[in-house]
Amino acid sequence: MSTTEHTLTLRMVVAPASNDEGSLNFSELVAFLNNQDHLTIHMDHCSDYAEAIDALESGRAQIGWLGPYAYRGIEEKGVVEAFAIGVPEGRNSPNYRSVFIAHANSQINRLADIKNKRLAVSDIHSTSGYAVPRRELGDIGIHLENAHEFSSLITAHNHDEAIRLVICDEVDVAAVSSINLDDSIARGVLEAQNIKVIHTSPDIPGAPLVFSTTLPKETKKWIKTTILNAHKSIKVGGYGGQLKKYVDPLESRIQFLESYLYPQWGWRTYANTILLIGLAWYCFIDLEIEVIGLFSDMSSYFMDVVGRMLPPDFSNPRDLALSMLETIEIAFLGTLLAIVLSTPIGILSARNVAPNKIIYILARTITVFFRAVPEFIMAMILVIAVGFGAIPGVLALGFHTMGFLAKFYAEDIEHVKSGPIEALQSTGASPLQVLAFAVIPQIIPSFVGNNLYILDRNIRMATMLGIVGAGGIGYELQSSFRMFHYPRVSAIVLVIFVTILGIDLLSSAIRKRVQ
Fold it and tell me: Residue 473 is part of a domain; what is its CATH number?
């Protein structure tokens, strides 16, 4: 800011997150800004998030501190933009988490135990006190919007108040910010042994300082630069008490992403990568594959084959269309057979709904057996058993892909949310009722998606089964190869490609409707 400018007076609003001034202390930072030339900032602590949001939206305030959820709501309106996010002392990133805490001697040990208990949350605009807890509870079938699912649902003024409610046994569980929890323990307000954390959310991006988009560009640049460098001149404070420094929101977003990516890249990942490369190298040596020679020879042979296949021979389009239709019919009936067979076996091979362990193991064994026997082997056996034509193709595809679909169904069922299941079981519902009303509705989208994928796969495999006499366009393909009629081969390949492309587009449209 130039010294020729007139004094600029701004108002800063701070959303409530703590009762303690030291835990939400922007005073030194504001004083530092006020000591600079031609800038005066008046700071107000708001009674709730709505007051802070309204002040920024109406223009009565030009700077503010908001939680990530509240900021996202107001940022979409183009009223404010984030310019700095505080990194707490002793930490490397501004990320924090929502934690559900209970008294140490409580019988509550997991999120599902919260149902019909006393729960404390924060303002509906609070990220870690309401938005994230609502999502975490919703994932297990508990709805924060429905107060009837709790014996009492209390809205605390802030996180410190929610922590106090747990300590004083006025609620059973409270959803609070990890920053407030750590700060309460550090200040001695809370003894760590007196509470237990029953659930911790994934990382939440840090809460930002924002300023109005209507401020002059030079003013915004000066405020941002000054605050990002303030730690070099003073001990900066903010949410969480004394901070290490403030960082640019872009840097904060990178650190937020890294919090998810870095745990995946430990020594095990590097060791497994090296092992994989070593195994691949061994296979090349054992199979006597010369990579350079392979590609040099392949390029010349490939061009020769392509030259023989052009132009495609579409002289008998009706025969091609009928053969392709027969292939689609074989694939469709094979997929339908697989669905019929795999549905009961998939249910019985899901650990969480199987009647007993013996049936579970038997069902799993069946799925493994049919996955292990390739379609070609099944088709050759069936061609000998029932003769040439479409029937061996249908049966081979149906039996083989039944093993895959049953496995897909079982895994989907094992990963359904347990909340609806427990809710129905608590009402005395029978196993069939639980399956019909709590399990199947959750797996319908993946059920449709898996079936469409298998249909797509079966059309391609039905083409290949025709080579061993199981009908369809594969027989035409094999005949053309044997007669060295390569233009006909290219025409068949194009027909297969167009068919698969059309089915893929149709499958995508169906998936969108069921999701």
Answer: 1.10.3720.10
At 405-453, the pLDDT tens digits run 888 888 888 877 776 777 666 667 777 777 777 787 888 778 888 888 8
Whether 400 and 337 map to the same domain: the answer is yes
* Rounded distance between C-alpha atoms, residue 430 and residue 422, angstroms: 12
* CA distance linking residue 358 with residue 364, whole number of Å: 10
Q: In this structure, is residue 297 part of a structural domain?
A: no
Looking at the fold, whether 133 and 60 belong to one and the same domain comes out as no
Do 347 and 317 share a structural domain?
Answer: yes
Distance, CA of 450 to CA of 454 (rounded, Å)? 6
Dist. CA 242–CA 229, nearest whole Å: 15
Quote the distance between the C-alpha of residue 95 and its chain's center.
19
CB atoms under 10 Å from CB of 227, counted, come to 22
- pLDDT tens profile 35-84: 876 788 999 999 889 999 999 999 999 999 998 888 888 888 889 999 99
Residue 443 lies in a domain: yes
- 3-class state of residue 14 by DSSP: strand
Question: Across the chain, how many H-helices and E-strands are there?
Answer: 19, 12
CB 204 within 8 A of CB 128: yes
Decide which of 156, 177, 200 is a domain's last residue: 200
HSE-CB at 379 with a 13 A cutoff on CA atoms is 25
With tokens 């569980």, the residue in question is: 173
Beta-carbon count within 10 A of 267 CB = 7
Count of domains forming the chain: 3
490 & 417 share domain: yes
* Domain CATH code at residue 78: 3.40.190.10
Closest CA to 166 of 197, 136, 142: 197
Q: Name beta bridge partners: 13.
A: 44, 64
- Pairwise pLDDT comparison (446 vs 292), residue with the higher score: 446
Q: Between the CA of residue 167 and those of 101, 103, 116, 296, 447, what are the distances in Å?
A: 10, 7, 19, 74, 46
